[in-house]
Amino acid sequence: MLSRIEEKLAQTVWPQFENTYYHTFSRVLDAFIKNRVAEEHFSCVTGYGHDDIGREVLDAVFAHALQAESALVRPHIVSGTHALATGLQGCLMMGQTMLSITGRPYDTLEEVIGLRGDSRHSLKARGIQYQEFSVFQENGDSADANNYAVNTDFSPQQAESIRKADLIFIQRSRGYSLRPSLSIEQIEQLIGSIRLIKPDIIVMVDNCYGEFTQINEPTGVGADLIAGSLIKNPGAGIVPAGGYLAGRKDLIESCGEALTCPGIGTHGGYMFDLTRTMLQGLYLAPGTVREALKGMSLAANLLEEAGYATAPKSNSLRSDIIQLLMLGDSQKLVRFCQILQSKSPINSHVSPIPAQPPGYADEVVMAGGTFIEGSTIELSADGPLRPPYAAFLQGGLTYAHARLVMQEVLEHLIN
Q1: Mind listing the domains of the chain with CATH numbers?
Q2: What stretches in the chain show pLDDT beneath 70?
Q3: pTM for this structure?
Q4: Cis peptide before 105 (omega within 30 of 0)
């Protein structure tokens, strides 16, 4: 069965992944060549890290690869949430307003914004206002993740909110919700509509899970700032920690001061001998993302043929590495995660069970025997135990791994 599905995918969607890989890898390689990366850039300056030519070329290579004017790439950024928080803190001042146009951001940003908790370091505590609306419109059953449309024409009320805001926040990936991920084309349309209303507003995009899934990045179609994690797509599974911001040079300098302090900004910090690994991870990233996309399309097609709903569909455009599998039953969701865990390189002997993490309203089951803790470019899955009991499957360093897991799912869950 899997061989038949592979033959079909090889004639339909996989050529798109190959085309994207060719273009994104070409741009990454061009970034290395234009910045004349050499062995001397692999050495780090200790202590204050002043005049670290490796750190400087790392930022320049990432900026070119991500179609940005400047970049800030650091192991000191502990997660994608930290990268996003650094961007928001670097761009917003007291009395200004952040407006999310893709609805409520991912759960981990709620405390950063001040929607939950009482931290003295939240945006709210610093006198920054928050507003939101959603460009996603439900068409029918909201439990079907394919029944959403994206409205790029703003209503008068939405346009007024944009005029009053200082920063527009766009979350590219679906994250932990059923709404679809935004394509680069949709992001470009949204930014164009925003610029007609307020040309000088800062547009920031949460780029987590989306890097190199399409030919262009949000900074290539008008975004002022993007942010993401190096234990997702751009680290290719070999970078042990870190995150990045990329965009306008003035904004990156401001974000550097938010990460370190005024007077140091982007110009200091020991890199812990990770410059070589970060550069190598970026070099491998387009190919690794291609492998993940192939695995996600296989999983979607297999589940579709077995009668399950999926999002995106196996033949749909993909703009992140996340695949929703609507299993429709809590026991099937748990079993799916257990199968994946049993075929993982790390902790294959562990059997995941549902638990309720802090900050979540429902029990969640998680599977991921990854070399890097929490790495979601490595094959992993999780899902809340609530209808429609969807498994959020993501990543895969190699297509072969995803195929082996899907063979187990076929034999021990579907059949």
Answers
A1: 2-21+286-414 (3.90.1150.60), 33-282 (3.40.640.10)
A2: 140-146, 358-361
A3: 0.96
A4: no
